[in-house]
Amino acid sequence: MSRFLTLLGLGVLVLTVSTAAAQPNPALVPTFGTVSLTSGFTPDPHTVEVTLGSDGVEAPAEAGCPGTFQVAPDVDLQFETDSVLPLHLYVRSSTDTVLLVNLPDGSWICNDDGNSLDPDLLIDDPQEGLYDIWVGSYSAVGEGSATLYMSEFEEAEMMVDAAPADASIHLDSGFEPDPHSVDVTAGGADLVPYDGCNGYVDSFAPDAALVLETDGSLPLYIYADAAEGDDLTLTVITPEGDVLCNDDAADLNPGLVLDEPTTGRYAVWVGTFASRSQGDADVPATLYFSEVEGPTAESIDDFDADMDFEYSGGEELSVFAAPSHGTLSLAPGFLPDPHDVTVEAGGGDGMPVNGPGCAGSIDAAAPTMNVMYGEGGSTLAFYLDSEIDTTLLISLPDGNWLCSDDELGRNPAIVVEDPPGGLYNVWVGAYSQDNAGASATVHVSESDPR
Length: 450
Prior knowledge:
This protein has no helices and 36 strands. By secondary structure, it is mainly beta. The strands form ten sheets. The chain has a six-stranded mixed beta sheet with strand order 12-16-21-18-19-23, with no helix packed on it. It has a five-stranded mixed beta sheet with strand order 3-5-10-7-8, with no helix packed on it. A five-stranded mixed beta sheet has the order 25-30-35-32-33, with no helix packed on it. The protein folds into three domains: about 35-150, Jelly Rolls (Sandwich), CATH 2.60.120.380; about 165-300, Jelly Rolls (Sandwich); about 310-445, Jelly Rolls (Sandwich), CATH 2.60.120.380. The protein is about 0% helix and about 45% strand. The radius of gyration is 26 Å and the shape is globular.
């Protein structure tokens, strides 16, 4: 649009021109090349390594997408398909990334934080033609590397019977030395697909396979630690096909115990809690097997959303202490909804409750806040916003415990259906103890935020 202004008496014509803000342009040559794939392609997934950078341009309004992008696409995908199989596009990076795609018909789609901080797009009925793909940064200036994945699988399938990537072990009960240890490389591109399990692994092969001969009279401890302090996870599939997993049994290291192990093959994956691109350095770790001792956290066995979380001792939780940020008294139908409280997250005490999402540090001496809620509500939700990675622990009026970590990106959320009336003790944790004291906002709502 142009505007003209005549300065009277001077006969001067001033022309000012305003141009529309730059946007991602599908017509430009892709920075990291063009990929041509036909449905049924192998290997699946197909990967492209990209370097994050940003021209600072925003996505088109119709994409509804946060973050900033380069003007030129990062990758173009020329895809031939009969639309029988889906097209799955996702990113792995240690940086918070956003995925923007211009489809063959010219429409835009976008995702942010489909899996934790990683974007994830599943196109059930993909079109044939050209897909222009941008990997953007959630922050204004993005740096680092990312890996773009193109697949026709909806989610990872753990290949239990595949040859292990790092170690095949055969142990008879009574083995020496105890513990038996092997070096492995932790992590991978695939989010562990079982409810209640955390971490990223290479699903196409376990890191280690243990063949155990035992009469079941001695327990089997399986645990891992990282050589450089990385946050690890552990997934084990037993000879019977049961899925066991753990995160943070001992600080950031996982471990579990089978009280009555059976003879057979145990497939073991050592994952990383955080996503990583293929360009990131390997994560060395040591995997241990013992019949004597190890981290004593219970395994999480095919997590049931209705399971009870158990208080396991450790730091004493003072549920009767005065909450550090006061008590809310709310009746069903309360306004405003959500009701917000600004608090300080974390503390000097480790999380003393075992269960999925139970992680981080809290101040065990007193709840962060309490909520007194009336009878008759249908849904009661607690969720957080913070610039740090936070966790959430709640003691319900019926004595049960609930935890959450990373339900909404890096922020936790707990939703209680048919909530009992009474007192809810709320602890706001910090995933890293170094962030204790950071600000967080607790939202209490009768709507599910997920």
